[in-house]
C-alpha cells in the first residue's frame, strides 16, 4: 500500500512556481538571470495599507477571526461589489480566504463529485485543472487560439457543455494572455449559460483594475443578472493593490455555497491573517488614487514588450487588454536549433534553452494548455524588460 495519496498522481506542481524558484536558485549561484515568470507586481504595497496593518498590530487585533472573514472586511467587500460592479451581496454571501487560490480551491472542494466536469478556456492559469483534479472532478479544456484572441466563443462553450458539466471557470482579463472579454462577448457566453441551468460560473476577476486603453471590465453576474444565483464572483487584493504576500482573496455568491466553503476552510486554514484582513479593509475602503498610476506604468511596459518581442524573428506577440502578461506565439521558432545546439521541438524546449543560453526565465506555453507559446510577466522595470527582450531577440536571430 502506497503511503502517499493516489490523488497526488493526478496533479503536478505549479510550473510558474517552479520557473521562479529555478531562476532564484540560478541567481543565487551567481548567474545573470532575468526572471519573467512571477505574476507579481514589483510595486510596494501603498503606505496607507501598510499603516492600517501596523495600526492593527499595535491595537492588538492579532486574534482569531471568523473562519471566512471578519465583519469589517465583509462589509468592505459588499461595498466594493456595489460600487464597482453593481452587484448587491449580504455579508453571509461573502467568503474571505488566504489568497484567491484558496477561494477557488474551497469552492471546488465543496461542490465537486467524481464525474463532474469543469469547463476551462485554454490558455488557462496553471492551477485551474489541478485544483479540479484535487477536488475529484474532470477538467474540460477548450482551446482558444491566437486567431480568436485567446477567447472562447459561444459556439465553443455550447459544444463543451454536457449533462456532467458543473462549472465554467472564467478569467478576464486572463492569466496568461491578458485577453479581456468585452460586454458583448461576455453576453454571448451568458446567453449560452442561460440555456443550461445546471452549469455554475466561477469568475476569476483578480485583474479587474489592471486594464488598458479603452477596455471596460465587466463580470458575468453584472452582465446577466439571471445568473446571479449560480455565480461565484471571485477577486482579491493581490495584484491591483500590490499585496501578493498578504494573502487575501474573497468571493461572493449564493449563501449555501458560501456556507459549504466556510466548512472546508474551518477545517483547513481556519481564518486568514487578522492583520492582512485589516490591511485589506483599508485597500478596499481607502484611497484608490494609486490605481491609475499603476495602470499607466503597466501599460507602458506592455507596449514596450509587445513592440520588442514582435521584432524577434519567429515570434508573434498580440497586444493584451489587461493584467501584466503577454503570451507570444513561437510557431516560427519550432523545429529550429538554438545557438548552442538544442532542438526547439516544443515550447518547453524553447524556454529551457532560453534560460540556459541567455539567462531569461519565462514559462512555457504547454503549462497553460496552449502551445507553442510562452508567457512573459512584465511586472518589472522597463530597463530589465528591455534587456530581457534584447536577449530574446538575439536568441531568435541566431536560431538555425
TrEMBL record:
<dbReference type="InterPro" id="IPR004839">
    <property type="entry name" value="Aminotransferase_I/II_large"/>
</dbReference>
<dbReference type="InterPro" id="IPR015424">
    <property type="entry name" value="PyrdxlP-dep_Trfase"/>
</dbReference>
<dbReference type="GO" id="GO:0004069">
    <property type="term" value="F:L-aspartate:2-oxoglutarate aminotransferase activity"/>
</dbReference>
<dbReference type="GO" id="GO:0030170">
    <property type="term" value="F:pyridoxal phosphate binding"/>
</dbReference>
<comment type="subunit">
    <text>Homodimer.</text>
</comment>
<dbReference type="Pfam" id="PF00155">
    <property type="entry name" value="Aminotran_1_2"/>
</dbReference>
<comment type="similarity">
    <text>Belongs to the class-I pyridoxal-phosphate-dependent aminotransferase family.</text>
</comment>
<dbReference type="InterPro" id="IPR015422">
    <property type="entry name" value="PyrdxlP-dep_Trfase_small"/>
</dbReference>
<keyword id="KW-0032">Aminotransferase</keyword>
<keyword id="KW-0663">Pyridoxal phosphate</keyword>
<keyword id="KW-0808">Transferase</keyword>
<protein>
    <recommendedName>
        <fullName>Aminotransferase</fullName>
        <ecNumber>2.6.1.-</ecNumber>
    </recommendedName>
</protein>
<dbReference type="InterPro" id="IPR004838">
    <property type="entry name" value="NHTrfase_class1_PyrdxlP-BS"/>
</dbReference>
<dbReference type="InterPro" id="IPR015421">
    <property type="entry name" value="PyrdxlP-dep_Trfase_major"/>
</dbReference>
<dbReference type="GO" id="GO:0006520">
    <property type="term" value="P:amino acid metabolic process"/>
</dbReference>
<feature type="domain" description="Aminotransferase class I/classII large">
    <location>
        <begin position="32"/>
        <end position="392"/>
    </location>
</feature>
<dbReference type="InterPro" id="IPR050596">
    <property type="entry name" value="AspAT/PAT-like"/>
</dbReference>
